[in-house]
Amino acid sequence: MTRAVPVIFLAILMAMPSLLQAHALEPGFLSLTPAGKDSWQVVWRVPQVRGQPMQISAVLPETCAPRAAPGPVQFDGRAFVSRWVATCTGGLEGGTIVVRGLETTRTDVLVRYSAEIGAPPVVTRLTPDVVSFDIALKGSFDSVLSSYFVLGVEHILEGFDHLLFVFALLLLIPSFKMLIAALTSFTLAHSLTMAGVTLGMFTLPAPPVEAVIALSIVFLATELARPADDQRLTARYPWLVSFSFGLLHGFGFAGALREIGLPEGDVPLALLSFNLGVEAGQIGFVCAVLLSGYLARLAIRHRDGVMQWFEYTGKRLASYGIGGIASFWLVERVAGFWV
């Protein structure tokens, strides 16, 4: 089913230079932590766009001073960060937080706040369609569930390195039963490491992990370039390959989740919601690729020459495209060790 779409799919990839970046924009993040009577420690993370902070600004309620970031921003390698202490006379409850400029973007902003000392953090997600909200003393179960689920879906669908790895698996494994086993192993593996890293049980530095993730895609591309009658490792042990590399991809998912942050008191729920979102996005991607393959096979089913070309040459070209993109990421990420 998947043999008929490698060239079509990779032609789309190569025609979109922006996809050479493994991840699209990270969501913005605003945190307000009580720091004393009527005082809050504010952290504002702004995604970068071509090396500059995105043109959005967080504005606190009218009772707060200062209402926006007053000082210099610092680039932490992935986003621009501002920190300041805001004094909000009478507290936060009932005030309105606005993210100006968000309506002209395609990103989201996650707001995490505690309205008073001792209160559990509340999580709210702002989008280009909803750029403000009124602060409540307590959040709801649904707000954490929906916010982190959507973030999980967005992260996997905007994480082109993870999607390219899954796409290579789809091309490599012809048996549907073996494919399900491989995808299940991949899911189990990255769920384990994502949970372990997020909960502080173990960790690895992000730059080497990102480089090895790119290397895992290069490996699958070399497997795809080998003749079908050759005893590929992925053909003999597809679940083992996907499980091993899934552990590494889990570190990548965990890095994004760690940067976004988890609400105290709702860590298990937020972690589960984010993971379910990742899986929902991955399942949607797999279904879209399989459907594209099925429709392509229907279109060329009576053209034996075209089908044979796709079976051999198309898959070989797909391996070169996947390997080329992944090699670019690998070199870029290794070079980043010294930046």
Give a quick set of tags describing it.
disordered N terminus; 2 domains; alpha+beta; 9 helices; 339 residues; single chain; three-stranded antiparallel β-sheet
Strand fraction: 15-25%
Quaternary class:
single chain
> What number of structural domains do the residues give?
2
Helix/sheet category: alpha+beta
User: Helix and strand string, N-terminal first?
Assistant: HEEEEEEEEEEEHHHHHHHH
Give the rounded overall mean pLDDT. Answer: 80
Identify the overall geometry: elongated
Terminal-residue CA separation: 43 Å
The gyration radius over C-alpha positions equals: 22 Å
Helix content: 40-55%
Number of helices: 9
Largest sheet: number of strands, sense, barrel closure: 8 strands, mixed
Number of strands: 11
Unreliably modeled segments: 1-20
Task: Explain the overall architecture.
This protein has 339 residues and is an alpha+beta fold. The protein folds into 2 domains: 202 residues, no CATH class; 113 residues, no CATH class. Helices cover 52% and strands 17% of the residues. It has 9 helices and 11 strands. Strands 1, 2, 3, 5, 6, 7, 9 and 10 form an 8-stranded mixed beta sheet that branches. Strands 4-8-11 form a 3-stranded antiparallel beta sheet, with no helix packed on it. α3 packs across α8. The N terminus is likely disordered.
Write a compact overview of the structure shown.
This protein has helices at 6-14, 141-158, 160-172, 176-198, 206-225, 233-236, 238-260, 267-300, 304-335; strands at 28-36, 39-49, 52-53, 57-59, 64-65, 74-75, 79-88, 96-100, 109-113, 122-126, 132-134. By secondary structure, the chain is α+β, with helices and mostly antiparallel strands. A hairpin with an 8-residue loop joins strand 9 (109-113) and strand 10 (122-126).
